[in-house]
Design a protein that fits this description.
- The protein is built from 2 helices and 7 strands; from the N terminus they run αββββββαβ.
- By secondary structure, it is α+β, with helices and mostly antiparallel strands.
- The protein has one domain.
- The strands form 2 sheets. A 5-stranded antiparallel beta sheet has the order 6-5-4-3-7, with helices on one face. A two-stranded antiparallel ribbon has the order 1-2.
- It is globular.
- The N and C termini lie far apart (26 Å).
């Protein structure tokens, strides 16, 4: 899967800091996937290609990513740093694949 399919079109850009909308999966699950100079990703730039990304607020539990979570809060209230792209792609695939942008932003 191309990483461009995981990260929808950029909606806000300031220098090389980008904020992307949440991804909506086929089963209704949502997840924020971010990568730029201001996010916990590798490389930390606005260009990529990315091997790890920052993930926030997955609406369905994600025990496979527990080691990347920054807090002990519920997954849906947490940010995950430096998550391998392949793990993000597997989460999205497990929820039926990306079908669009989540209607309720942050």
């Amino acid at each position: 899967m191309s990483y461009d399919l995981v990260l929808p079109e950029v909606t806000h850009e300031q220098l090389d800091f980008r904020v992307r909308p949440q991804i909506l999966c086929a089963d209704g699950t949502t997840i924020s996937v971010q990568a730029s100079s201001g996010h916990y990703c590798t490389p930390r730039n606005g260009v990529g290609p990315y091997t790890t990304v920052e993930v926030g607020f997955p609406s369905a539990p994600w025990p496979e990513a527990a080691e990347y979570k920054f807090s002990g809060d519920a997954d849906s209230d947490s940010v995950f740093g430096y998550v391998p792209v392949v793990l993000v792609e597997a989460y999205i695939a497990a929820h039926g694949g990306a079908v669009g942008i989540a209607p309720n932003e942050y």
